[in-house]
Amino acid sequence: MLQKLRGIVxxxxxxxxxxxxxxxxxxxxxxxxFLIPAARSRKSLVSAVLFRxxxxxxxxxxxxxxxxLHPIKEARLWVALNSVPYDPYKTGIxxxxxxxxxxxxxxxxxxxxxxxxxxxxxxxxxxxxxDFANFHLVFLMRLSRFxxxxxxxxxxxxxxxxxxxNACFSRQPPLHGMFVRPDEAARxxxxxxxxxxxxxxxxMNRTERNRCLDIICQYYRLHxxxxxELKSLPVLxxxxx
Length: 241
Description:
This protein is α+β, with helices and mostly antiparallel strands. The protein is built from six helices and eight strands. Strands 1-2-3-5-4 form a five-stranded mixed barrel. The longest helix has 18 residues, at about 205-225. The chain is elongated, with a radius of gyration of 19 Å.
């Protein structure tokens, strides 16, 4: 049956000569796959240009309970983004986060607080004019709270290491060997204190920022099944100096 949906575009893949698959995280049904025309005709009410990474779209789709691919009949922008599709740094962030979310949200269904967080974050990035080099780091740390992966920070003391497996800070390195040494653990603790409004106050150089991103990706891979390597990670790490 036809339903009206709102969602966040994560990726578009070639399906056949006539259709493409677009993966969209929707507010009503979580991560779903839809079919759109590969090329727009005069009669089509669906344009492929709408489906860029992190685009916020509203659309009408024929949802069938047993189907894995749902055709989109009509689509438009829900919120028009003014800078993310055109700023090369923001576009790089969008490509990375869209790929990251495909993996992290593969098992997510209806989660209204998570959907609201994602939409707010995308709108914030689009509106921000300067000092957003730490955005993706803060985004991923705060995302972990919605997925039930937020680290326990209650026992943190200066000089602790960070236990990646048990998601907590520890005075002694754990025997399993999956931990972050104290100097880098302190930086992770710093990230947990940041938000979008204050992140520009915490300066990090390129090496520190990239190392934090490596640790965060390792943390998610450890806690989420089938979280594979990200192809866009090297591109993002090369963006900010």
